[in-house]
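Notes to self after the call with IL:
- keep both proteins in one doc
- input above output, always
- annotate only the second one for now

Protein 1:
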Amino acid sequence: MQKCPGATLFALVITTGIATWVVSLIISNAAKLIIDENGETSWILRFIFTILGYTTVFLPCYVLIHLSQRHNLHTLGGCQWRLLRLILTGTTLEIVAETDITPTGRLSNTNVQTLYQKALSLFYCCAGLQVSYLLWGLLQEKIMTREYTDGDKIERFTDSQFLVFVNRILAFLFSGIYLLLTHQNVHRTPLYKYSFCSVSNTLSSWCQYEALKFVSFPTQVLAKSAKVIPVMLMGKLVSRAQYKNYEYTTAVLISVGMTAFLLGSGGDKKGNNVTTVSGAVLLCGYLIFDSFTANWQSALFKEHKPSSIQMMCGVNLMSCLFTSASLIQQGGFFYSLSFAARHPIFIMDCLLTAISSASGQLFIFATISKFGPVVFTIIMTVRQGLSILLSCLLYQHHLSPMGILGVFIVFLAIFLRIKQTSVTPPTAKARSIKVMQQAGQFD
């Protein structure tokens, strides 16, 4: 058979989706019998549900893509095949003309700016990043760790997946509107390739929200500062990347600082072993998933050369698809909306969190394009320090002298890394991509 008929193709996709959904229900019910839904390790159950929800989307899409490529269905005419062509090639055009590729993520700026204009622009970028991400961090901690009161009823919000969904859908809208209003290179990245880093990105965000139930926000911020270590390890495994001696040295310093901080702040949260282990596992999960996201995005930048905003839009589009499927399967939308109906202030917290996250991503791209990755990294490093300070002041986290020393060592290592990078820089494009990855631009 030369071609696979469209009706047969879609029948196979639908059958795969139904079969995956049925198997997911069986596994979910079996998991509930083994793991206590109200216990300290209930996050494992939620993680299983999340993975199963993603699988109900991933497997049918795999069948669709595999059969379409095998039978070249994306080369056919018709609206349905144009959509398929977008998924498989990144564009609806049958033939894409070769054009010069401008540096990705760069905004054209042919006008010569005065010193005052540059200073004003830097102030706007710095203020935008600080306000966006400081607000995002404080609201994130509030939603996941503080209680909402409705008369005599006091409860906490527990569905991390819904928060990820809200952040991603707003980021998708922000980036989509930006793409419509600005000129971009022809998009050449197959949409399905965004799905891999999209899954790892949503799982890393899920892990960081869940981790706040077990560890303090300052601990999480320091752990995120140490993401350079798993990024380097994943780079070795995925890309066979080579690193300089100063990169290994600063990675060791960050590890020492993290160890000192954790030893010096052990009494900040519940002191039982289960909680400690759960928080550590979730933070490790965040770092592993996030490091894969960074390296996969790097590979897409090199192979298909999308702009940073195109990458942001594509990843968030796929993230919306995966998280919405998972929420529908788990009943997360019903729980979250009913919680919002009982606590209207929760709606405002969610919207502000999503807006600050999405606007922060746009400020990231603007700052790097105008002032370079070193200035951006300095701003974000200062933001991390301020986040820890504000969290300690507002939510009464305790830091011992050893914990303060650990924070100092971590930030010293980061600034040493910034200084050395500015002295021996790689290409501007490679630096921009690398810094955006290590900053966690989709957190």
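Protein 2 (the one to annotate):
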Amino acid sequence: MLRWILGSREAQSSVEKSSSLCAEEEQPKNCFTELQVLKGHFDIVRFLVQIDDFRCASAGDDGLVLVWNIETGEKLQELRGHSQQITAIKTFVCKSALIDQTLLITASSDRSLSLWDPDTGHRVQTISDLQSSVKCLLVLERLSLCLSGGEELCVWNKDFQLQCHLPNRSDTGIVMLIELPKNCVAAAMDKDIVIYRLIVSPNSSVMLTEMHRLFDHRDQIRALININDNMFATGSHVGELILWDATDFNILAYEHILWEESQSASEIRMGSSKPSEMSIQHLCSNGKLILAAVGCGLYVYSVLTKTVVAYRKVAHDSNVLHTMLLSDSEVMSCSEDGSVRLWEIQDLPPPAEPASAGIFGMLTFGRSSKQACPPSKKVFDVPNLKMLELIGDLIGHSGAIQMFVSFKENGLVTCSADHLLILWKNGERQSHLRSLALFQKLEENGLCEFTQESAAFK
């Protein structure tokens, strides 16, 4: 285990502050001050999935699935069976009268699906005669069903028997799936969202029917998430964020997130942004807020007020690939630049003097995809706007960080294009646990010596 001093890149003073991380309560600090490098993969590690409170599985382009103990960093199992890269991985909880067992489902470019027991490392079931590669998976534990999406949408029961399937008419195929109320699912295919309904008969047979097709995005959909039981959200390659009603599929809100530059006080538009600068790569939500990764920036949106809460136009040096809302005031992001950053949503400080527009950047908003976007709005004209303040910078990977999984007080796991996983821990908590373990051992040794001395005296 290595001890690492981590701090902000934005100001020299942040380096000095990071030496006392987690020590002061009056200011938020990055507590991830210890790291452990986990080796086992030999290609890009793209996926992490949490199995339980102390285990996770990693998968990537080498076709391997590895199971890790996040307390010790020990590699518990190697799941070998796929001959090409893993394209999707999910947990599947099988409920029984005796015990609930968590299994792993993996999909690969070798056109196969596998069901694994992470406790033993055994492959329980495999399907190897698929017509095409599976790009995404969705587990419906309530119905004991699994859906796989690609060039076709397939429904499988818990025994991996095909229940029904539908081809799709998209060149890209189905790339994302989420569950909706009333036995419905939403599938992202290129620019469209397709709503399907599952009909389960009394004899457990399953039918799949297409209900709606939503055409409101103007470019490829890059993110699809649930917000709550009543809403879901999508994000596109050109920065469109749409909130949808999960039952009648109407648009509840539409925002066009467009980073723009300003020059001096006259605010000159610099032309259209590059697609990579305004593409929404990832969305996450806690039911109250939506956090969007937009190019190399971050954008926080309120579900309740349908307004922007905070934003950071340049949060990383390269595109942001994964995000998480830790709370209503703290967020986390990782990027192609190889860093994981922690942010706090803070009130803007009162300006000491009239601020130049050049320090703010601009956002343009549109309320309907069928209408032209309204004139640009200054960010500082948006009421109650807050800022994202950097409070921690985790530097350890040498390649693009694909995603991370938080185990809360037990740590954070990141995976990267450098073939490595890194287990990040709360340094103060780990020191405390080591001290407790040492004292316990000393007490046990002291008691043992006392018992031996007493026996010799007798």
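Annotation: The chain has three helices and 35 strands. Residues 229-395 form a domain with the Lipocalin fold (CATH 2.40.128.630).
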